[in-house]
Amino acid sequence: MSEIHTRTNSGEQQTSTEIETEEESVDESLCPECGGHTQLDAEHGETVCEECGLVVEEDEIDHGPEWRAFDASERDSKSRVGAPTTKMMHDKGLSTNIGWQDKDAYGNSLSSSQRQKMQRLRTWNERFRTRDSKERNLKQALGEIDRMASALGLPKNVRETASVIYRRALDEDLLPGRSIEGVATSALYAAARQANNPRSLDEMTHVSRVERMELTRTYRYIIRELGLEVAPAKPESYVPRFCSELSLSDETERRARELIEAARDGGILSGKSPVGIAAAAVYAAALLTNEKVTQSEVSGVADISEVTIRNRYKELLDVDGLPA
After folding, report:
1. Which of the four CATH numbers 3.40.50.300, 3.40.190.10, 1.10.3720.10, 1.10.472.10 does domain 133-226 have?
2. What is the CATH number of domain 235-320?
3. InterPro entries of this UniProt entry (predicted)?
């Protein structure tokens, strides 16, 4: 059906479809019973006629905030806009980035002069975001933490904690004489252990840009100076990840935990690497539950030698009273 065009007072054209839409929007504010005006009751989520009290609509979407405030000061403290702040960015996510696509709001490409202007704006924007050496240091370190956490598959809460630890080290002037990468790796290692999602030193060294000796030295220094409480890693913390990467069943994971608990009661965990104990427990549990897994596969996942797995494996079975 062809559309009928009409001429408005301003000389613009309107289609009959647009006119019908406007009429419908006008009619929506009128009561279908008495023709009176309707009003939105935001508290109850209803649209009610002012004349006859008819509830025209109910269960409407509340577009207001999810919090409640009882005075002006509380309302000001809870009010917010935009994305939440995060410790994972040096400016806590409060700054603005200028896109690199060189296109305007309509998707059209910018001219040569406009592209040059936008490039200058990007340069100055980046300079203002990192105005001093401390912010540049923090930006580089938080980028390193995010990169290593992604490579290790660590969750967001570990990254946030590592960012807070690094900020504390920077504020207390612990970085002179130490590399940014070393302190960032130490902060991530400590945060992973605090969140009961630990990674071994070898795994940290693989994704870091520092050697293991520097990592252990810096880690001990950061822990001591900041007074962080980091409990020794438990072998059980490694078991779920090892079983997941080896595609083992829940029964195998449960059996591995039982072997570790028996070894703890037998007093053979003292002085042993928790990674080695966890890997050996997973290997032994897989054999006990008739799941096929080799020492080489477990060694590759746990990043330890097969000799360590064999030694710990025999000790676990001896404590549990099973033949090796």
Report:
1. 1.10.472.10
2. 1.10.472.10
3. Cyclin-like_dom, Cyclin-like_sf, TFIIB, TFIIB_arc, TFIIB_CS, TFIIB_cyclin, Znf_TFIIB
